[in-house]
Write a structure and sequence with these properties.
seven-stranded mixed sheet, two-stranded antiparallel sheet, about 40% helix, binds phenylalanine, ATP binding, Phenylalanyl-tRNA_Synthase, magnesium, aminoacyl-trna synthetase
Length: about 325
């Protein structure tokens, strides 16, 4: 029994196997236990002799089992440590941090400038009523911008707003003057896509209503804003224009950011970045439409193209780059 057991123990590869082995030899029904049980059949003289031998065998096997168990335990530990070893010389995983989209950074910069000038930031829905988008803004029934080929209609009365000006209507209907708000967001027009046009673009609307607000206040506000955004040496130029909801109206050009008005390739030699902004004194009829007394209050409004401003600010020459989410482009900012 001893020899066989010793031989088998030396071949054991796991602690489980070892335990099976122990039960087989030393357990209740084990081979050695069997021997001890049958001692009763032996004579008085034989009993102590066989008993001693059996006890020796038991002790030897137990000792061998214990030492083998220890050895296997250590081997397993070693293997585990080997497997879990950490190579501290390996390069780490790169953590890629996201950042603001250039367009969102521009919106934030614009909002911050207007906040510093005492404006509040408000939001309006991208799906608007025809009433807010056109009618309340005095836009004539037959105005070409209402055409199905220019505007995304959802139903007869609902559309994707074609500008942020309906936010003016919402604010004037909901709140009493004095009002001083800006509102940035998406706008939609049925335009073919090219390097300066996209059916989805962004505007920022501004509205100021109070007693004694004049065109001079409008011009100074725009001028101050442009200098804050692009620098003190920037100039603005107001060209007469027409919008149904402002009178008088103007379009604003700004000195070319690249050449500061000297004339370069970017501005076709004119020295101006064109059509960044539309503005004017809120038409008294629009005030009336919103329940504001035009005898007591006056105000101005402006709408600027955020995409254009972002393009001028960052030197981007194709509006599509802003919406394609090409990482090679975005990673540059
Ligand atoms: N909503 C006009 C546009 O989209 C811009 C504008 C806004 C003009 C406010 C005057 C006053 O062209």
């Amino acid at each position: 029994i001893r020899e066989e057991a010793m031989n088998e123990i030396s071949k054991m590869k796991s602690i489980d196997e070892l335990e099976e082995m122990r039960i087989k030899v030393l357990g209740k029904k084990g081979e050695l236990t069997q021997v001890l049980r049958e001692m009763g059949k032996l004579s008085k003289e034989e009993r102590p002799v066989v008993g001693e031998i059996a006890n020796d065998v038991r002790k030897d096997i137990e000792t061998e089992l214990n030492s083998t168990r220890e050895r296997l335990k250590n081997e397993m530990k070693k293997k585990k440590l080997e497997k879990e070893r950490i190579d501290i010389s390996m390069p780490g995983k790169e953590i890629i941090l996201g950042h603001r989209h250039p367009l969102m950074a521009t919106i934030e910069a614009l909002e911050n400038i207007f906040l510093s000038m005492g404006f509040s930031v408000v939001y309006g829905p991208e799906i608007e009523t025809v009433q807010n988008n056109f009618d309340a803004l005095n836009s004539p029934e037959n105005h070409p911008s209402r055409d199905l080929s220019d505007t995304f209609y959802i139903t007869e009365d609902m559309l994707l707003r074609t500008h942020t000006s309906p936010v003016q209507i919402r604010v004037m209907k909901e709140k009493k003057p004095p009002l001083r708000i800006v509102s940035a967001g998406r706008t939609f027009r049925f335009d073919d896509v090219d390097d300066t046009h996209s059916p989805m673009f962004h505007q920022l609307e501004g509205l100021v209503i109070d007693e004694n607000v004049t065109m001079a206040n409008l011009m100074d506000t725009i001028d101050t804003f442009i200098k804050e955004l692009f620098g003190e040496d920037m100039e603005t130029r107001f060209r007469p224009h027409y919008f149904p909801f402002t009178e008088p109206s103007a379009e604003v050009d700004v000195s070319c950011v690249k050449c500061k008005g000297k004339g370069c390739e970017a501005c076709n030699g004119t020295g101006w970045s064109m059509e960044l902004l539309g503005c004017g004194m809120v038409d008294p009829k629009v005030l009336e439409n919103c329940g504001i007394d035009p005898e007591k209050y006056s105000g101005f409004a402006f709408g600027l193209g955020i995409d254009r401003i972002a393009m001028v600010k960052y030197g981007i020459n194709d509006i599509r780059l802003l919406f394609e989410n090409d990482m090679r482009f975005l990673n540059q900012f």
